């Protein structure tokens, strides 16, 4: 779908749902961004979180091992950036439970107003007697991210069971009303 037709579809959805009113400054932005995944409280859980710039009535993750057959929903929470614009964005978090061990799942997140790309994850093996291969990194950098291509290749080749990010996820949040952190 081309960019123009996608914008027309978003406009139609927003207008028909009552989420956008004529006279609003711009079209709403329902596209999930800044998608993150984390292990839940137990090994059979994954937590998917993302941000949208505009409100959607629900937060949805569709997932499965060969098709997006299962759906889990929750509700977004608003977040107000404390810059002078007081920008409001919406935080989404969905916990997927009862996952099978050592299994690859496909998923996307969002709502009927917009979906993320298709992503994958693999669950932990069962039991506790198996070696864990972990990559750990700090500040990846939005500029000059020299380790990124190598890390992407190693992850895509299945070299790690988990990646731990210990550094700056977002910084300079005080600049440009938080837009620096959005990058």
UniProtKB/TrEMBL annotation:
Q: Name one Pfam family in it.
A: Pur_ac_phosph_N
* Coiled coil (UniProt feature): none
Q: Which UniProt keywords apply?
A: Signal
Q: Which residues belong to any copy of the Purple acid phosphatase N-terminal domain?
A: 32-123
Q: Mind telling me which SUPFAM superfamilies this protein's record contains?
A: Purple acid phosphatase, N-terminal domain (SSF49363)
Q: Record's superkingdom?
A: Eukaryota
Quick one: signal sequence residues?
1-25
Which GO MF terms does the UniProt record name?
Answer: acid phosphatase activity; metal ion binding
Name of protein: Acid phosphatase
Q: Which organism is it from?
A: Macrobrachium rosenbergii (Giant fresh water prawn)
State the organism's lineage: Eukaryota, Metazoa, Ecdysozoa, Arthropoda, Crustacea
């Amino acid at each position: 779908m081309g960019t123009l037709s996608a914008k027309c579809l978003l406009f139609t959805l927003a207008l028909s749902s009552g989420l956008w009113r004529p006279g609003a400054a711009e079209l709403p932005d329902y596209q999930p961004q800044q998608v993150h995944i984390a292990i839940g409280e137990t090994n059979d859980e994954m937590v998917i979180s993302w941000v949208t710039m505009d409100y959607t009535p629900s937060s949805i993750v569709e997932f499965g091992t060969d098709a997006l057959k299962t759906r889990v929903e929750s509700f977004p929470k608003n977040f107000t950036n404390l810059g002078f614009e007081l920008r409001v964005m919406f935080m989404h978090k969905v916990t997927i439970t009862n996952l099978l061990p050592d299994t690859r799942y496909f998923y996307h997140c969002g709502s009927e107003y917009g979906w993320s790309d298709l992503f994958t994850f693999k669950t932990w093996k069962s039991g506790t007697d198996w070696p864990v291969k972990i990559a750990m990194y700090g500040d990846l950098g939005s500029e000059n991210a020299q380790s990124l291509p190598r890390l992407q290749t190693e992850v895509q080749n299945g070299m790690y069971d988990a990646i731990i990010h210990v550094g700056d996820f977002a910084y300079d949040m005080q600049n440009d009303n938080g837009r620096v952190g959005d990058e």
